[in-house]
Amino acid sequence: QVQLVESGGGLVQAGGSLRLSCAASGRTISILGMGWFRQNPGKEREFVASSAWSGGGTSYADSVKGRFTISRDNAKNTVYLQMNSLKPEDTAAYFCAARALSSGVWDYWGQGTQVTVSS
After folding, report:
1. pLDDT of amino acid 55
2. I need a surface site. Which of 10, 28, 80, 119 has the fewest CB within 10 A?
3. What is the spatial distance between Cα 39 and Cα 93, in angstroms, rounded to a whole number?
4. Burial status of residue 115 (CB atoms within 10 A of its CB: 0-12, 13-18, 19 or more)
5. Is 68 strand, coil or helix?
6. How would you label 34-54 residue by residue, b for 16+ Cβ within 10 Å and e otherwise?
7. How crowded is residue 19: how many other Cβ atoms within 10 Å of its Cβ?
8. Cβ-Cβ contacts under 8 Å for 57 (sequence gap 6 or more)
9. What's phi and psi for 75, nearest 5 deg?
């Protein structure tokens, strides 16, 4: 099992920045990749960004390209999401997820952290 704990959400004005962190614990050797998703009430969860757990390889949703950066610190088992030039439409609950080696799907999820961008 893998446990994920997010932190770093909050309230920020449009144009501002936030950095989210996701600390992984447990059987981290079984992780293939890490990602961030976001969701608003009544809407589907949407992909934001992902990174391979080892080696290169990142991917971003078109809506955040050039503004958000995903990075990781394998020594700390932590993945980050640096969010710059935030817009009100970035407001959502942000969830960290881990893709399992065994299944290749997003098997593990954090509890979420709220990001609110005011105009």
Report:
1. 74
2. 119
3. 5
4. buried
5. strand
6. bbbbbeeeeeebebbbbbebe
7. 14
8. 33, 51
9. -65, -30
34-58 confidence digits (pLDDT tens): 999 999 999 999 999 999 888 778 9
Type of residue numbered 64: V
Please report, for residues 18, 25, 64, 78, 119, the alpha-carbon distance to residue 85 in angstroms, rounded to integers and kept in the order given.
9, 31, 10, 23, 12
C-beta of residue 4 within 8 angstroms of C-beta of residue 109: yes
Distance from C-alpha of 61 to C-alpha of 71, rounded to nearest angstrom = 15
What single letter denotes the amino acid at residue 94? Answer: Y
Higher pLDDT among residues 15 and 104, named by residue: 15
Closest listed residue to residue 35, CA positions, set 94, 87, 92, 84: 94
Q: Is 41 within 8 Å of 57 (Cβ atoms)?
A: no
**Quick one: tokens of 33?**
């990749």
- Neighbour order of strands in the sheet with 78-83: 2-7, 18-26, 78-83, 68-73
DSSP alpha helix (H) spans, 4-82: none
